[in-house]
Amino acid sequence: MHYRQIFFVAAAALLLGCNHATGQQTGQQTDKQTDTVNTADAAEAGLVKADAHPDVATGIPALAQRLIDAYPEQKLVYRDNHIVFPDGTQIIYDDGKEKTFEQMLDNCDIEDMLAMTYNPDTKVPAYLEDAGRARSEAFFKKMYGNSEAAVRKNLVSVNWFGQRLLFTRVNGADRQLLKVAEEIAKYPELKKYMEQSSSFYWRPVRGANRLSAHSYGMTIDICTKYSNYWLWSNRGAGEMTKGLKYENRIPLQIVKIFEKHGFIWGGRWYHYDTMHFEYRPEFF
Ligand SMILES: [Zn+2]
Fold it and tell me: How many angstroms does the Cα of residue 41 sit away from the middle of ligand 1?
């Protein structure tokens, strides 16, 4: 699916409570003029970013450019519907497949991954608002390592409130985590939320084939004692269940500090996971 269409579909799904956020195309594209107007309307409604339109001069989709800019260390380029690494590795940008929400989680291309806007002002996430929860596994394996051993080669020990946490140095994620620690340390009342944190763990998501973000070494879970998780609070719920009860006990002050340094928060997902922060600079 073309990324412009996916934006409109995601926007429509949010408005209509559609079960398949990425499932159906809303119609044929007509011309640039119409497209621009639609994008502007959607942006005005707060559902897409105003820069969603492709850069006409370069021909690089704006979302692809955002990815390239977010990971300068990777020296990525966009070519012929692929994100290309300096060693020639190419990862497809848009696989052109229509997917249901659940198919998208398990088989996410780069365009799918970037199509939802991460909203740092979200209080209670809307139905299926999960920006960043779906990941292009090929892209993250290429950057951080395609096996546990390969990821481990890039891990360093970070001092996290007296705990030693393994975190990747790829993309400077370890340095960003240290900045978060330094800033949170200024507020002693927040320290209790940092106890018994965890980071690297190579494993699939429970009940799914895809890898957890913890596998890549750029993700941290803070104290479980103060955490809420959509499945703990909604026993028996599934991915498509509507009306999930939302709960959070993590102070937004902590969240804002993580976000300032490029980490998204699982508490802004409809399928929330409030202890979870992962380094995803492409969403800021
Ligand atoms: Zn987590």
Answer: 35
Q: How far is the CA of 277 from the centre of ligand 1 (A)?
A: 7
> Quick one: pLDDT at residue 227?
96
CA 10 to centroid of ligand 1, rounded, Å = 25
Distance 205 CA to ligand 1 centre (A): 10
pLDDT digits (tens, 9 = 90+) for 136-152: 999 999 999 999 999 99
Residues with CB under 5 A from ligand 1 (ion): 221, 276
pLDDT in tens, 159-205: 999 999 999 999 999 999 999 999 999 999 999 999 999 999 999 88
Tell me the C-alpha distance between 244 and 57, whole Å: 44
Distance 256 CA to ligand 1 centre (A): 17
Q: Which domains does the chain have, with CATH numbers?
A: 5-115 (no CATH), 142-283 (3.30.1380)
DSSP 8-state assignment for residue 234: S
Residue 43: both structure tokens together: 């942006």
Asked if 78 contacts 68 with a C-beta cutoff of 8 angstroms, the reply is yes
List, for residues 165-175, the tens digit of each pLDDT value.
Answer: 999 999 999 99
How remote is the CA of residue 44 from the centroid of ligand 1, in Å? 33
The pLDDT of residue 3 is 41
Contact predicate 171/279, CB 8 Å: yes
CA–centroid distance, 221 to ligand 1, in Å, is: 5
Helix (H) or strand (E) holding 92: strand 90-92
Ligand 1 centroid distance, CA of 199 (Å): 8
CA of 220 to the centre of ligand 1 (A): 6
Beta-carbon contacts of residue 72 (< 8 Å; ≥ 6 apart): none
DSSP 125-171: PPTT--TTTS--HHHHHHHH-SSHHHHHTTEEEEEETTEEEEEE-GG
